[in-house]
Specification:
This protein is mostly helical. Helices cover 70% and strands 2% of the residues. It is globular.
Length: 488
Amino acid sequence: MDNTNSGNAFSNFINNKVLPPIMKFVNTKPVKALQDGMVYALPFIIIGSVFLILSNIPIASVAAAVKASGWSAFFNQAYTVTFGIMSLWAAVGIAYVYVRNEGYEALPAGLTSMATFLLLQTLNIANPLVATMGKAGTGITNAAGKVVMSGADVSSNIDKLPSALRAFVESPVTGVINITWLGGQGMVAAILVGILVGWAYSSMIRAGWKITLPEQVPSSVANQFTAMIPAGVILTGSMLIYAAFSALGNTDVLQFIYKVLQTPLQGLSDSLGGALVIAFLVPFFWFFGVHGGLIMGAITSGLLIPNTFDNAALYHAGKLTVANGAHIVTNEFYNNFINLTGSGITIGLVIFTLFAAKSVQFKTIGKIELVPALFNINEPFLFGLPIVMNPFLAIPFFLTPVIVALSTYLVIYFGIVPPLNGFAAPWTTPAIISGFLIGGWKMAIWQTITLIMSVGIYFPFAKKYDAVLTKQEAEKEAAEAAGDTATN
């Protein structure tokens, strides 16, 4: 009785004290805009991942043939303008969703956010010659990737030029957009820009800062005049901010945010502690009936997706190792390990229902869950078994993703399996297939092992719960039989 009261008290504390402020935060306008706005970047991330694999097929002989044929450059072009500029898509999508949720014409806000995001960066790139020079330089390569002039040779030949000509040749290339800041390194800046532009744009429209044309003017034209004042104010303010950073700090906003905010936050998300916290909180929220995947996805995507991008860049360069800076915890670590076969990694329960369950309830729900589980969906178990608020299954539900996250982190850290390659496999991709796509055959084998771990962890708890259900069903059947006998 005391245990029951303690359990109810804890549940009441979570539901009344812990979850309300969390849900209030998750349902704020900025977080909703972030959650739904990032979705607009996903098609480009997934399509770009395909081009990434095609330009770097994990079979040496095939990869060499593709590169020699010139197709690698074409695939890389497609990758660059999809996955490679995902922060730009995010900046547009977040501002768009923010203003759309406020009930206003949203596309002009998305385009204003894109212009702002570009305006806040320095429009130049380092001269390619700089990276080729010196003993540590890459040298000059031909189309097939063969070095035709070493870094030392490049330096010695440039040094023979007159100083004025040498300075001109080595100066940055201006009047271009640096795509470095349109990829993963600009993601936190893109999120901030999208949210701030969405808020500012909506506030000005709400306050009546707009040009209103006569009713006879077509709405398609009138809407653009409506956007003119908010867009003009935002872009003018952004220009002044850019000028201040350039004059006072000799930098730009995107680089500043990357160094001050994004780098520390990515490091935190990529730590073992970060992985374990994420792995625990997803089932924790679900246990109390709140969508843990959506909550943690909204909070972590802005950091884990850049981790994916960084790994993709290293994979593209043939340098995908932890020693070279590859991240262990990426968005695919979250989707394809922490949430494998659904939140709580409930494949162990599916296996139990197929081969060991005796209760009708377990068998029935298991048959319903079998196909969804293959695509990492487990709501039939969460609410039908149920797992939500079920003390019999709480321990394996919390424990399995934590153990899988811990062990997966360690096998990557110690080089037993390679880091995830940056391929953005959709979260519904079946297990083992997703493992192969995101990390090759070794990762597919490891993913298989994690499925076996789920079976081992869930089995004793499921067996105990199944016995309780079987007993309840037998008692109900006996009671019904006794009732029928009394009636006759």
